[in-house]
Amino acid sequence: MDYLKLIEKEIRKQRFGKEPATLYEPIRYIMSLGGKRLRPVLVLLAYNMYRSRPSGRSLKLKTSGNQTLQQIVSFAVAVEAFHNFTLMHDDIMDQAPIRRGKPTVHKKWGENTAILSGDVMLVKVYEMLSALEPELLHKALPIFNKTAVEVCEGQQLDMDFETRETVSEKEYLNMIRLKTAVLLGFSLAFGALLAGAPEQDQKLLYRFGVGIGTGFQLRDDILDVYANQDKFGKQVGGDIISNKKTYLLIKALELCKGKDLESLRYWLSAKKFNKKEKVLAVTALYDKVGIHTLASKKADAYFRESYALLKGLSSGVSIDDLTDYAKVLMSRQN
Q: Judging by DSSP bridges, how do beta strands 98-99 and 102-103 pair with one another?
């Protein structure tokens, strides 16, 4: 099944609102920028793991089955809309100029409009989810609300880290779990819930999603430094320029010694600098202590541990499509 085609068709259909156009056009703009559509794809993958099972299997699905595939896609797009709402506001906080190769909303329409359009996006997400059958809504809403709060907690921690001199590896991994990974976990658990999967399977898929989500963010940290600008879709070296406490920087501060540590601390404290020069200098220090390899191994470990969880799913559930998709994420270059 071509999940992306279904998702893009549903996104084009969603208008989100009409007037004033200056409020709703930024929403349509950010939703039209494309991307991997990772979260809605995970919703549909989990749903079809259970709803498309071969006949003759004994697993009983606890659902009335009244939701149509079209409705399932619209619920998946609601998750994507929530993700893009967070991106719209995150870009303002980070003063990011580029998103998916295009100007960010606040650069194109101004910060005030970007804030307000983001607020409306969140309201529209709840409006889209309200179409769930009452029993499913009752189960899904508390999980979604918890996830939404955790995403905000992760973003606040990320900003707090910018003003702290030191951040531990444990603190950083918890931050990316909240900011990025829990929404991937929710996406899989939500898709399984919509299909009526057993609660234990929903929990395992949630944990799987959190694991690959953490690995995914570590990959993103690596790509921010080492990606090809033409493929990456946002500013390469942005984390270095803004002194973001990424896994790469945390480990570099731990491993650099002597003059290398002095040089790294110089670039972190510099108020005026040439952006390109700073990115090249810090990247060279990363290379010297093997940060790329170290971070890649850490990301790979999260993926391996996540795969092991799938062995606990109900007998007869096919995990092939999900694991294939996770492997694509594992080897991503943009």
A: antiparallel
